[in-house]
Amino acid sequence: MLLSTCPNHIISDVACSCRSHKLRARMLQLSRIHRRIAKIKKPSSPSTTFGSSGGR
């Protein structure tokens, strides 16, 4: 470990990686939600928008 040589750099690096990890997790969550919506919409009709999702 290089904690004794340059702790500030490592701390900043860890913070940066943590931030990027959070962003990645959020992106994954959004993609999962989009996939779920697509799965729900596919069986009924593939080319429908959010507005015209009401059954007639």
Q: What this model shows, in words?
A:
Helices cover 68% and strands 0% of the residues. It contains one helix and no strands. The longest helix is centred in the middle third of the chain and has 38 residues, at 7-44. It starts with 6 loop residues before the first helix and ends in a 12-residue tail after the last helix. Residues 43-56 have a biased composition (Low complexity). Residues 37-56 are annotated as: Disordered.
Question: Could you list some keywords that capture this structure?
Answer:
1 helix; 56 residues
Distance between the termini: 65 Å
Q: How large is the share of residues in beta strands? A: under 5%
Q: Biggest β-sheet, characterized?
A: none
Order of helices and strands: H
Radius of gyration: 21 Å
Task: Give the overall shape.
Answer: rod-shaped
Low-pLDDT residue spans: none
Number of strands: 0
User: Helical segment tally?
Assistant: 1
Q: Helical amount among residues, as a percent range?
A: 55-70%
The SS-based structural class is mainly alpha
Mean model confidence by pLDDT: 68
